[in-house]
Amino acid sequence: MSLASRLLRVAARTNRGSTGLTSPRRLLFPIHTQRNAGYTTETPADAVKKEEFKVASEIPPPSGIADQINDGKTDWSKSYHGLSEQAFAKEVAEVLMAPVEPLDVEIKPDGLIYLPEIKYRRILNKAFGPGGWGLAPRTETNVGPKVVSREYALVCQGRLVAIARGEQEYFDPSGIPTATESCKSNALMRCCKDLGVASELWDPRFIREFKAKYCVEVFAEHVPTKKKKKLWRRKDQPKLGYPYQES
Question: How far apart are CA 123 and CA 208, in angstroms?
């Protein structure tokens, strides 16, 4: 007689009533598995036991914390935590949206006016304090044949403020590291538009008035090719240098 058959007989005897009939009470020895033809059939007792010892990795995380990883820190490559949650304090907004200082604005030879990237960092440091803001990459660096690009998120006081993709051209593979850093600065400049920093630089009326008051368009010759063209510079800056020569 097999061991399983012996256990069944003992269980039946133990649960018999005084009348000799089997009591409706449960058996004292629950049957866990039955092995037939090479496969195993799981009983309810096994299912309960397995549920009791379920490991943490099998339990889904509570809703609402999908963007929390690394001991509770926010994964800024995916999270939108704090976006438009509330306005910054009045004193912070005044620093961010202060009128741009004309002496800080530069102009490229093609006539494009811009604010050097270090100026944006100084404004953010003044508004939030060093360490109170940062750029978090949201994608891997994309290196193309001529352009490096990467998407960044501007985070201020633990809140997502803006997302922008920075880009920078390069002409030689040895210049990729420098282009990568310039790409980050370009993304910072674009993110700062959402905070109102130097917003005048995208205002057509301001651009026209600034160029008329502070800049001058001059004829210059490209020394290597001897081609002449009109180029821009600030009035308070010296004449254009090599490879150009003002006429």
Answer: 24
Task: State the pTM of this model.
Answer: 0.67
CA nearest neighbour of 79 among 70, 60, 66, 88: 66
Measured CA to CA, the distance from residue 158 to residue 156 in angstroms comes to 5
| Cis before 243 (ω within 30) | yes
Q: Smallest Cα–Cα separation from 210: which of 194, 229, 232?
A: 232
Tokens 């993709």 — which residue?
165
CB atoms within 10 A of CB 83: 12
Q: For residue 20, what pLDDT band results from cuts at 50, 70 and 90?
A: very low
- Give me the residues paired with residue 216 across strands: 233
pLDDT, position 15: 56
H helices of the chain, in order, are 3-14, 44-52, 90-96, 117-128, 176-192, 204-214
pLDDT-based confidence at 4, cuts 50/70/90? low
With H, G, I as helix, E, B as strand and everything else as coil, classify residue 127: helix
- Output the CA–CA distances (angstroms, integers) from residue 27 to 4, 14, 30, 129, 242, in the order listed: 14, 9, 6, 72, 99
In 3-state terms the chain splits into helix, strand, coil percentages (rounded to 5) of 35, 25, 40
Q: Which two tokens stand for residue 28?
A: 């004292």
User: Which long-range contacts link 119-124 to residues 24+ away (Cβ below 8 Å)?
Assistant: 119/198, 120/188, 120/189, 120/192, 120/197, 120/198, 121/188, 123/95, 123/96, 123/98, 123/192, 123/197, 123/198, 124/156, 124/192, 124/197
Which residues, 6 or more positions from 55, have their beta carbon under 8 angstroms from its beta carbon?
none
The first and second tokens of residue 120, run together, are: 């944006």
pLDDT, one tens digit per residue, over 78-88 is: 888 989 888 99
How far is it, in rounded angstroms, from Cα 200 to Cα 183?
Answer: 22
